[in-house]
Design brief:
single chain, mainly beta, 5-stranded mixed sheet, 4-stranded antiparallel sheet
Length: 319
């Protein structure tokens, strides 16, 4: 079912609620983000990994406190931290970008229960798979297929690679993918890919993506917004967030039915934004400078409330 949401095009006031025609978005609360890459669990809490390898889970949805539940080896040898953390749709696997640059760049795949310290296995938890691939952003098309954006370590060309988790293989399916890496997001057979330089977002048919790679321009143009560093969807709503070097950052929500949009800038325009939908709480979250700004959708449409949490819980998150 598609919702009947209609977003009136309007500008948001900094640190204030956003007034829309139907429904309204109202700033509900803020909270402190974890110190590292994170994703959303099906119950609405955040799962995160710090630069030192501590695995943390948010104590409650929208809480500013986190508890360490496990540990892994530091994701990155230089202390940068992971590029992304993503939970598979069936919640059995966790993929982690090691944020290296060079021959050692890879995606690490863990058993989710081990990763979250639920099995009591010896520490630190080791990955089940280490798949060599550049990594900036990632999202699961299904529980065995992960799409990853990044820059090739030898050519510096931006690419989107398709990872087969069972086989432990990676193949380039989109190249080049803009001058700078952007977000990727899979939803019901469609892969949304952002170009970090232009902010353009294009859509690709997941089933058709295979070697030889296609150019970014081969995808269907969707919209353009900041640097498209993170992308998420909820029913007919598309959320694109990012920023550029001279400012102009925001988290933009677009109604795909009408094309109308609203830009959220609660931390001002001179910030790099992330954004995601929290299906468990029926809220929109814009992130900037270590803070999450949580907006209520009023009223919460039935189609949003019934959206599959397992699919919506696998989106890449960045502050």
């Amino acid at each position: 079912m598609r919702s009947v949401l209609t977003l009136a095009a309007c500008a948001s006031a900094i640190n204030a609620s956003v007034t829309l025609a139907q429904p309204q978005l109202a700033l509900n609360t803020t909270y402190q983000l974890p110190a590292g890459a994170f994703d959303v669990l099906p119950d609405g809490r955040l799962l995160a990994v710090t630069a030192s390898g501590d695995i943390q889970i948010q104590d409650a949805p929208n809480a500013s406190t986190y508890s360490t539940v496990n540990t892994i080896d530091a994701p990155n040898s230089s202390g940068f931290g992971a590029s992304f953390l993503s939970l598979s749709p069936d919640a059995t696997s966790v993929a982690l970008g090691n944020n290296e640059f060079g021959a050692s760049n890879a995606v690490l795949v863990f058993n989710a229960a081990d990763f979250m310290g639920l099995t009591g296995n010896p520490l630190p938890t080791a990955p089940l798979q280490t798949i060599t691939t550049p990594n900036f952003s990632a999202d699961w098309a299904d529980s065995n297929t992960l799409f990853v954006s990044g820059a090739d370590s030898s050519t510096f060309a931006t690419v989107v690679n398709k990872l087969d988790i069972t086989a432990g293989t990676s193949e380039t399916v989109i190249s080049p993918a803009g001058a700078f890496s952007g977000g990727v997001h899979a939803n019901t057979g469609t892969l949304f890919v952002g170009a970090g330089d232009s902010g353009d977002v294009r859509a690709f048919d997941v089933a058709s993506l295979a070697s030889p790679a296609v150019d970014f321009s081969a995808g269907q143009f969707v919209t353009s917004s900041t640097s498209a560093g993170s992308i998420d969807t909820l029913d007919n709503l598309l959320l694109i967030a990012g920023g550029v070097f001279n400012g102009e950052g925001n988290a933009t929500i677009i109604d795909e039915d009408t094309g109308l949009s609203v830009a959220l800038t609660p931390a001002g325009t001179n910030a790099f934004y992330g954004g995601f939908f929290n299906a468990a709480t029926n809220q929109v979250v814009a992130t900037a400078n270590g803070t999450a700004y949580v907006y209520d959708i009023i009223p919460a449409p039935a189609s949003i409330a019934l959206a599959p949490i397992a699919i919506l819980a696998t989106r890449r998150r960045r502050a």
